[in-house]
Structure formats: C-alpha cells, structure tokens
Amino acid sequence: SAMSRALHMAIRVGDIRGAMDALARKQVDLNSFDETGRAPLHLACGDASMLPVVEALLIGKADPNLQNAHGVTPLHRAARGGYEAIAHALLAMGADVNALNRRGESPLAWAKTDAMRGFLMASKKDADADVATKDGGDGDGDGD
C-alpha cells in the first residue's frame, strides 16, 4: 500500500517523525516487504537512531522473527550494527536469539563487537535455560 511504502521510505532515510506518522495511520502492513525484500523492522534495526520506531513497530505487532529472502531477521541486523538497545527491545518482544539465516548463521555470528557478542551470549544462555525449564528436565524434549 502507499502507506506501507511511505513507512519504508521514512525509515530508509532516517525520518523518525515521518515513520511515526505513517505508523499512526492504522492501514499500514507492518510486515510488508519493500522492493529490496526488507520489512520495516529490518530497515529500522539497521540504524541505532531508529530505536523509537523499532519499539513502535514491535508494540504494533510487527513480527520480531520475520525473515527476509536470505533468512535474515531484524536481530541479525541489530547484531551486525552493534545496536544493543535495539537487540534488547527485539528480545523482550520475543525475537529468537538462535534464529538462523539461509547460510546457517545466527545473530551471534553476525555480531561485530565484543559487547554485542557478550550480550547475545547471555541472552542465548537465558533462552537455552528457558527451553530446559519448559521441557521439565534437560532440554532434550523428552520431559526428563
């Protein structure tokens, strides 16, 4: 839609107010892909200044695990940029720290800074502990 295109464009050029205006109009598909195969969340997660837009997209129910044609998630993009605040927002809204792209790379593999690697490793440990707890045992899926 025209509104979805306006949202993509505003994010691409770093126009936070324009992106927020587009989001305020409810007829925007938050998970729509642009001509480059990226959704608004993919675009916003590649720019540290877009944290307010990332948060608004997530609150509006944009999919934090949406993959582009290469299997890249918004968390991959945040990890590559070293944007911990964005990564934290994504993880808080259910982003999968273990998501793999088509090459089998996790967001951790894309992390460029030690700080981001440490942050993702701690998040991964928490995620793996949650799996073990939900399983009722050792996390292998058999319940013991």
TrEMBL record:
PROSITE patterns reported in the protein's UniProt record: ANK_REP_REGION (PS50297), ANK_REPEAT (PS50088)
Identification of the protein by name: Uncharacterized protein
UniProt cross-references to InterPro entries, sorted A to Z: Ankyrin_rpt, Ankyrin_rpt-contain_sf
Species: Chrysotila carterae (Marine alga)
Position of the signal peptide: none
Residue stretches of each ANK repeat: 36-69, 70-102
Xref: PANTHER family: ANKYRIN REPEAT DOMAIN-CONTAINING PROTEIN 39-RELATED, BRCA1-ASSOCIATED RING DOMAIN PROTEIN 1
UniProt record, GO biological process: protein K6-linked ubiquitination
GO molecular function: ubiquitin-protein transferase activity
Keywords recorded for this protein, A-Z: ANK repeat, Repeat
